[in-house]
Amino acid sequence: MTEKNKNDRISCSLGLNGVWVDKDWIKPEPGTPKEKLLKAISVLQAEVNTLQAEIRFLQDRVSSLEKECEGWCTCLDFLENIVVVVKPDGNISLINEKGRRLLGFRSSEEYANRLWHELCFEPAVGEAVRFLEAKLLSGDIEKVKHYRTPVITRYGWNRIISWRSVVLRDKEDKPYGILHYGHEISEEKQKEILSRPEVRYQHILDIIPVPMHLIDRAYHLLVINQAFKEWCQKLGLPLPIEGQNLFAAFPFLPEKVRQEYEEVFRTGQPLLHQEKTGLASQTIMTETRKIPVLEEGEVRQIMTVIQKLSSSL
At the topology level of CATH, where does 210-313 sit? Predict the structure, then answer.
């Protein structure tokens, strides 16, 4: 075997009938010097010791980061406002003490790695929250101030929270989460908003730059967000108004659209379709999501989310 520099690392691995040391194969056959085999074992042990030291270093680093995180969590628990940190995949990373008390969680195990937009919101509001978070992560929205949503506690109560939301970024400017920071609004305002279901959604829908509207079982437009109104203006369509029948406002919608809404009302399951719609000046291709809004187990309303895919003259 060639002489090695003492500072060089010698690679070593076990085989079925011997030991590889760098490119040399050492096999304990009769007459083989024991010293050579012992050297191979010694090299192997050195490798194991190095790996163990690296593992201990990583364990110490993880422990240090956990303590640092616990320190931040303790600081957040002193705040009188709700703090929720959500991972990019939508799962909850952290809720501070104020938030846990309001939402009814006794420990982090009850919400850890659960989807924020599914766990604490009605389906329609949750879908709006999901869209908002996607826009924040993509950079379409930098941060959001003062929007209201109803949340559902573990006890089944509805509470209206005024939120601010911002993306959390690492040193390389890559998003690693979203921070939602909020507080309850006054009891008087809570009663006013909760008594009018359509008002519960207006605030958050208006800040989402995607066309959305909400209809009831009679196809009346209950809520139309600002992006939908602007979209209608760009397409040269008359502006719909709250209370108007959807098919009266948009008479060009085909019968299959009504059938899709009927299916959602009947099954309670969301639908996702790509649709081609012919207008006076152009044909547009859209992806339309119809999301049921349930109340006491019955679909009372449907939220529609429209994303334009393409258009042609």
Answer: Beta-Lactamase (3.30.450)
